Predict the structure.
Amino acid sequence: MARPEGVSLVGEAVDYGEFRPVPQLIEAQAIRHPGRTAACHVGRTLSYQQLDQLANGLAATAARRGVGKGDRVAVLLVNSLEMPVAYLAMMKLGAVFVPLDPAWPGDRLASTLEVLSPALILCAEAGQVPAGRRDDALVVATGQIRPSARRPGVTLAPEDLIYGFFTSGTTGIPKCAMNRQAGLANRLRFMSRYLGAADAEVVLQNSRHTSDSSLWQLCLPLITGGRAVLPEQGEFLDLYRTIDSIASYGVTSTDFVTSIFNALVAILNGDEATQRKLASLRHVIVGGEEINARAVHRFRAMLPQVRVTNGYGPTETAIGMVFHPITDADGDQIPLGRPIDNCYVAVIGEDHEVLPRGAVGEIVIGGACMGAGYHADPLSSSLAFIPNRFRDAIPGDRLYLSGDLGRLDELGRLFFAGRKDFQVKVGGVRIELGEIELAAQNCPGVRQAKALVSQRGDSKSLALFTTGDVGLTDAVVRDHLRQTLPRTSLPRHCVVLPEMPLSVAGKVDWRALRAMLDARLDAEAAQIAAQNGSQQDLAGVVLRAFRSAAGLSGLTADADFVQAGGDSIQALLTARELSRRCQVRIGVQDLLDHPTPRGLAAVIEARRHASQPPSETELMDRDSEVGESEPIRVADRAGPLRTVLLTGATGFVGSRLAYELLTRTDVRLCCLSRAYDDTAATRRVIDAMSKRDLWDPSFAHRIEGFRADLGQPALGLQDRTWQHLAQTCDLILSNAALVNFLYDYRAHRPTNVTGTAALLRLAMAGRPVPLHHISTLGALGGAAGRYGPVGEDIDVDLAQPPVSGYSRSKWVAERYLARTRQRGAVVTVLRLGEIMPSQERTHPNTLALTHLLLSAMHRLGVRPDACIWSDYTPVDYAAARVVAAVIDRQAWGRTLHVFHPDRVCFAGVLDRADVSLTEVSCAEFLSRLQVAAADGSPDLRRLAALLPAPDGKDERDGLRLRRKMAGLLTDNTALFSKNECRGLERRARLADGELDGPIAAYLAHLNAHPEAHLKEGA
């Protein structure tokens, strides 16, 4: 095809043969590989046959609801296996699917549905659909779809519509960009060739599901026989979870928004262990906003096996249609690249003439990627999709005006040169500033609103200036915007002005607004610096303590400590520092309850003028009592055991308990978990089991999660959920606990004590049912040696309070439960020892002190010349005994000790294991630990905080280290008597002397997976 020489117009035609729509390409893989995994999501999978037949079944249901070719269907789903089923079902029908987000504000969701006017709304729950449109809702759940081998057989043509995505609109009304079958098929066929995609391709869907880039990540592996990995909703913002997902699933290709990619590079920089987690990656596409050359080149240096591609293309043109594989030769000027197969780019001037190469103009796009315009918005469509004046060089009737400025170099490579209109990208999200302005102008009292982008260094943020009636405040405007805008469009800075600054021409003076914003930010920075150096008032003292002890220099008086990244060690240091400075007792829980400096300052001020809160001892005694009004009743010991309520199923012990219950019994599990809804709670449990190689898809119909929080009143459950669990559960297995050896009793109290009392109330709420409570042998450490080996029959009140906050919380919970037993409750207490990896799996227990100790020795390459003793109980060994106590009704109401009978000297095991560690003095070991901890490794910092600081004298340091470790790692074999539960299988037993094998396997795991050192426990 002829084109003018020396002008800014490039593209190339590639013959892919007869047109085959995407659903047919996926169906071909279902025929070729019916049993192969097509998609996976937090432990659940779909084979190609299941995906195909579920999509056929859903398509049939939708057809019965009147959906046909060309009809628009809203897909109100989040990341799940239901999502690919819904997409493929609509593709098969020839319907146009449009992803929406149930988390959008109600007004925005209603406005998108009004624009779309869909024939059907596919959703996870009918309650997510606005009330006026629930007649159009169809709930999608894989377990409720009737699979069908019969495909719809709808004939699809290249020009037919296939999908739409909503973009921000300048009028404040969202626009739905519609795309054609030909565009998506061409994009996927090109990517298959470009990436060399084969049936081994594993692609991580690493974009928001309402972003069009998520579509190629889902569909590309499905047309090649590969596997699509859908992470938990929102997980792409948690880069550590993304890294773990890439490692767990062996991901080969994915996509990053530029800003997130830059953050990934910062995490990887200098961290070889984390870099090794990305060993499976072969292709990464970066796009969404202008690329950072330094970050890309650094990434390529760290992971040379990965080909990094700069990708460009608006939503209106089939996801993206300009690619550039980055090389060292690109230097600091990385081009957008060249158009993909059958797509074309031109750079034009004001009169829409093609400009010479090197000249900057507007980028226009044509070819197979061309979308069909905006649904129900002919004016916007006519302005953006213009007649094709270059049909001799670019096929098709129309071109898309991108609004982006660019230039083509002599090699035909496209370079980005900014935006032409009022549209911006912040954090990779395309935002119309006009939409923000219109939303603000709809706020009562606002007369005028102007939005702009603030950039300092590499950080971009949105700012909004408004004028309005007397009494209008920043907070009023901000609260209004939260109700109308998606989170990604919310301005970080809201400023109310008396009047807008005007230029001599009478227009808004943008330079003056930017100067105002810069001055405001400079003033805030100066104020922070001044406050950081001032101790004139209590608020300044608290703010200074937050900054210095927590190491968070950017904190303001109203910044949330936890949201700013504060961890448990920083919380402990901050609380201690404030207690010292203010002469008022401040605990970690106080900081967690009042996480801003201003809020905590108010608490301190109140305590200065009031009586001191009860001492910890007084509080513990008070918490141990059972109120007379507590409805304690005797549970039925003979009733059927059909449903067990399990707490803590996402933890190291809890996930193994879930596995043992699901494999050794036929009970149904109800699991409480912190999450944003019940579906996410179920996913968290499945994800936890999957990560530890414990999940089997056959478990799916027997496990159900419920959103809860043991630290909240009534366990954080809704009334209807509380009633449902009270009526259906036959036994409660209370395993969840906060475990943090740096926190005091008050910090552990809400979950471990108050939560236990709430679980007992739940057990009594319907027909009374038994409660099995997981405790720790450390709770009774104060009784060891005073009465001989401590057994089940000891009166817990005879034991002295333990030292650590965690053990104290367990001691109090046991005292409370002992009193409920006296009033008839059927309560079984199971005290665990030091729980470590199972015999066949070596996933570390990052909460265990032995993990901190062994991994620290391994990482430092040295061990102290001290014999530190402890029991070492594999988690499968312990979980089998706990489940036996659940099954064995004669064990109900008893107190049982669950730990391995052999004690272990770590020095001896390390000598026998094939691990090269140099023996050093205790003083040398403590010194090396302190130095390494200063580098910021979370696990080393925790261990260093627990162990004594070295004083340089070997003998004294050795004695202090042994004493400290003896207090932390109790030799339970010498202090406690062991009880065997009935009904145990032989496979759960370990004979005397068999612990060397599991420990050696664990050490070998640390050797093979050094990243295990970096896991952060709570």
The two ends are 63 Å apart (CA to CA). The chain has a mean pLDDT of 83. Residues 276 and 676 are 32 Å apart (CA to CA). Residues 849-873+900-971+992-1014 form one domain.
